[in-house]
Amino acid sequence: MASKVTLIFALLTVMVVVFTAERITAQLPIPPRYDGFVYRNRVHANSVLVEAFFDPLCPDSRDSWWPLKEILRYYGQKLTFIVHPFALPYHYNSFIACRSLHIANEIKTKYTYPLLDHFFKHQTRFYNKPTSHIAAADVIDQIIHFALEKVGNSSLSVFESAFQNTTTDITTRISFKYGCSRAVTGTPSFFVNGIPLFNGNAAVNYTYWRSVIDPLLSGEITEAD
């Protein structure tokens, strides 16, 4: 019996190693431009780069966004900020919401962040339980009309067409895969100048952001104790 267990364990180990090696050597899709939505479409030379991986239906992403907006106002051109949409699989409607952000961004970049704000303010409408009795196609229709509240009714046909083609589907998948390639497992996740920001269980609030960014702007290199 013990020998059978050992054999099974050995076979599983080989399968895991082969599968992992196959995944490592597989090339991720390369998008035509860098993933994410640049805040106010501004990239500033010699600025601090802050990147956030947000799920528009994640309450923790929502709560972290408001103090971060204050930080963006405070520092202005000293920061370049990018949001990467990252659809958590246990938020059933998140992929659709992320896809709508990509569509809005393709229509006009000025619509993306107002729509993200709109999701954060009203995200409970698209939580799992309130939509559990609604067909997927109807959820898409609801999110389209929700997005039009910020983008404008003239974009209805654009949204409907974009949800029918594969382009925005692939773009949203690439955003998720990009997050995985940077070891993102939850939202919100933050990177500052390419380095992951770890703050334990403490809230990433205005004071904490100041403690991270102020030394960088003065040329200091911050290290963990």
Describe the structure.
With 225 residues, the protein is of the alpha+beta class. The chain is built from eight helices and five strands. The protein has helices at 2-25, 59-75, 94-107, 112-122, 136-151, 156-164, 167-181, 206-217, and strands at residues 37-38, 48-54, 79-85, 189-192, 195-196. Strands 1-3-2-4-5 form a five-stranded mixed beta sheet, with helices on both faces. Helix 2 links the parallel strand 2 and strand 3 (79-85). The termini are far apart. The model is unreliable at 4-22 (pLDDT under 50).
| Helix/strand order, N-terminal first | HEEHEHHHHHEEH
Q: With helices defined by DSSP (H or I, 4 residues minimum), what is the helix count? A: 8
| Arithmetic mean of pLDDT | 89
Q: Specify the structural class.
A: alpha+beta
Biggest β-sheet description: 5 strands, mixed
What's the alpha carbon Rg, rounded to whole Å?
20 Å
Strand content: 5-15%
Instruction: Using the alpha-carbon principal axes, give the shape.
Output: globular
Instruction: Please report the total strand number as a whole number.
Output: 5
> How much helix is in the residues?
40-55%
- In whole angstroms, how far apart are the ends? 50 Å
Side-by-side strand order of the widest sheet: 1-3-2-4-5
Ranges where pLDDT stays below 50 over 5 or more residues in a row are 4-22
Assembly state: single chain
List keywords for this structure.
225 residues, alpha+beta, 5-stranded mixed sheet
